[in-house]
Amino acid sequence: MHTSRSIPLSLAAPVVFFWASGYPTGALGVAAASPFLLTAVRLALAAAALGVIALVGGAVWPSGGAVGHSAVAGLLTHAMQFGGCYGGMAAGVPASITALVISMNPVLTAALAALLLREKLSRTRVLGLVLGVLAVLITLGGQVAAEGSWNPAILLTLLGLLGFSAGGLYQQRYCGGIDIRSGGAVQTSAAALVIAVIAVFEHGHVTHWAQAGIAVLWLVITGSVLGVSAYLRAVAVGGAARASALFCAVPPCTAVIAWPLLGETPSAAVVLGIALAAAACVLGTRTEARTPTPA
Questions:
Q1: Dihedral angle computed from the Cα positions of residues 45, 47, 48 and 51, in that order, rounded to the nearest 10 degrees
Q2: How far is CA 156 from the centre of its chain?
Q3: What is the number of other CB atoms lying within 10 angstroms of the CB of residue 197?
Q4: If you average pLDDT over every residue of the chain, what do you get?
Q5: Is the full-model pTM beyond 0.70?
Q6: What's the rounded Cα separation, in Å, for the pair 18 and 254?
Q7: Using 50, 70 and 90 to split pLDDT, how confident is the model at 128?
Q8: Which of 40, 50, 94, 120 could be 195's S-S partner, Cβ–Cβ 3.0 to 4.6 Å?
Q9: Is residue 66 within 8 Å of residue 170, measured between CB atoms?
Q10: Are 259 and 27 a contacting pair, CB within 8 Å?
Q11: Residues 6+ apart with CB under 8 A from 208
């Protein structure tokens, strides 16, 4: 029987850093360019990079219905997630809070899997879900108290979280046999087309070309190529539960990066939310012990 191993620090650290750095970098990007224009360019470049990797690696390309399934997975995972996150940050949602909300993905995915795929949701995972909701509510409550008003843009961030979780489940259900390299190219291409249409109506513009260009290149290289590759390697080494648990470390790492880079000083509510989110992710991704079956 195959037994998953622990993920070494040499692999875990890059996964956390690549994902965490994406939120402050995204905030810098939307400060220099319109959010959907930035997202469309990022996804288009990512599609080109993944397409080259697939061609060089001799990947088998999806055909027939598999193309449609890949496109739907891409719209959920990439268009909804990044469109929601960047749209929210452009409207004032801090990078650290965005990272905290998106870190709820493992917990929300477990809940959606129980609801849609009839997967068993244990008491431990229910507790994780409750803590996750509490973490978000405390963090958002702290933001409202600090700013004196509710920022409706957080709804875009929550939409991004929903897309991330739903996309993962759709991929699990319909895209299991598709090569991740060619499938990723199809996914990001479909997402780029849809976001590009939205960007046209956004009347996007760039106010700082150098800052926007550096942000996009960093997001493509570390997020879409290196980050995804490192994460998939972590899944192969330690299993999906251990790999997804690494996202517990993403919000605090994001807060550390955003402090000097963006001047976002983490409040007490954010620190408490991060602690609760970490506990929620650990519980939400915990592998349940199974009772041995008599031979």
A1: 160
A2: 14
A3: 12
A4: 85
A5: yes
A6: 10
A7: confident
A8: 40
A9: no
A10: no
A11: 31, 32, 33
